[in-house]
Design brief:
Radius of gyration: 22 Å
Structural class: mainly beta
Distance between the termini: 35 Å
Length: about 400
């Protein structure tokens, strides 16, 4: 998906202590059973995984702004890492990953606001719920996203939102890097006109440019849209947009396609929350013979507090893609194809107290493609404990 900021940037978590302090320390230990650690349909390898994740969050509020940052270190022991990363089947492996997230928000006045966010990730696992990376286990990679949002309410009825995002992806393994290393720049401008107290009309445009370092694939996509923002309740907001996209494709013919986006955010009382989004757009693909794809993407996140000590979550994403011949490199040997990839994470959290939580859940993911070599299913079961101070 295009690397536009989501809700002003990555979430940084909260402080579990009753007294305010500038830091929060978190550590988690999780045990996972994974039935397809290498995300393949050929001789899938199962593995037990032990994951240790210490993290530190710092937060420095000011009178007219806030800076926060979080660093997370992950050490994962795989009892059987299969054939990935040059290992032979049955070999154990320890993989180390890092994540740094930083966010700065500043209010120049009650009408002008700026938000900047930075996310650096050195990962091994696929980015199932992220907008960068891949749904495949292709070895370690760096994904760095820098984005910014400037909001201005010029008059009581007219406002603008300007966004920019830069995403860079780099893989360690040269064979993967040759086809997957890329850089994406995305900018957007939205004009908002209030026509009723709870309804605004929006007009805007998006420019999204994707290019790869060592292969001639990618695209530049220009989108114009119109839509409406509606807040029927203080706890419910709805946004819908529709328009057209003009896409210039590397080694392909220009393409005109429809654009659509829908988002719903609903606080269902004091104990639950639901968010849902849908988009129909031109987005990147990790198929090395294609420059991009037209995708229908559905995402949802539901949280429900069953009791004061027990909560449940359900997070899901499904992408249905159409890769037309316009996106496929000439001489690649493949034809237009359709593909569906998905991921679902559901589970329970027991809050022993404000400092200690117990987690359990299931993660289902996979790809169903008309290109048989891209198919796989992967199921994971996890149980863990997390402490926060």
């Amino acid at each position: 998906m295009m690397a536009l900021p989501a809700n002003g940037g990555p979430s940084l978590g909260t402080d579990a202590s009753s007294s305010r302090k500038f830091y929060t320390l978190t550590a988690s230990l999780r045990e996972v059973y994974d039935d397809n650690v290498n995300t393949t349909n050929v001789n899938p390898q199962s593995s037990w995984e032990t994951i240790l994740s210490p993290s530190i969050l710092v937060d420095f509020p000011t009178a007219d702004g806030d800076f926060s940052a979080r660093y997370t270190f992950n050490a994962t022991y795989y009892s059987n890492y299969g054939n990935n990363g040059g290992s032979s089947g049955g070999n154990s492996s320890i993989q180390l990953t890092h994540e740094l997230v930083a966010q700065y928000m500043h209010s120049f006045s009650n009408r002008f606001n700026l938000s900047l966010a930075e996310q650096f990730r050195y990962y091994v696992e696929p980015s199932l719920f992220e907008s960068t990376g891949t749904v495949y286990n292709n070895g370690a990679y760096v994904a760095n996203t820098l984005n910014g949002t400037f909001g201005a309410q010029w008059t009581p009825l007219f406002g603008t939102t300007t966004t920019y995002a830069n995403t860079i992806v780099r893989y360690d393994e040269s064979a993967v890097a040759d086809s997957q290393n890329d850089i994406e720049n995305t900018g957007s401008e939205t004009l908002s006109f209030a026509i009723l107290p709870k309804i605004s009309v929006v007009l805007g445009g998006i420019v999204d440019d994707l290019s790869y370092d060592d292969t001639s694939r990618g695209y530049t996509n220009y989108t114009g849209f119109a839509g409406v923002q509606w807040q029927p309740l203080p706890s419910l907001s709805v946004s819908a947009q529709g328009g057209l996209s003009y896409t210039e494709i590397d080694q392909g013919q220009p393409l005109i396609s429809p654009y659509a986006a829908l988002s719903i955010n609903w606080m269902l009382g004091a104990r639950s929350a639901l968010s849902f989004s849908y988009s129909h757009d031109v987005v990147p693909t990790d198929e090395f013979d294609a420059s991009g794809q037209i995708a229908d993407r559905f995402t949802s996140n539901f949280r429900y507090d069953i009791t004061t000590n027990l909560s449940a979550h359900l997070q899901g994403i499904l992408t249905s893609s159409n890769v037309s011949q316009s996106f496929i490199s000439s001489g690649s040997g493949i034809s237009a194809y359709n593909e569906i990839d998905y991921a679902v994470d559901t589970g329970l959290t027991y809050h022993y107290n404000s400092y200690l939580n117990l987690d359990s859940g299931l993660i289902f993911s996979g790809v169903s493609s008309q290109l048989d070599y891209r198919d796989y299913t992967r199921d994971q079961v996890y149980l863990g404990v997390r402490g926060t101070y």
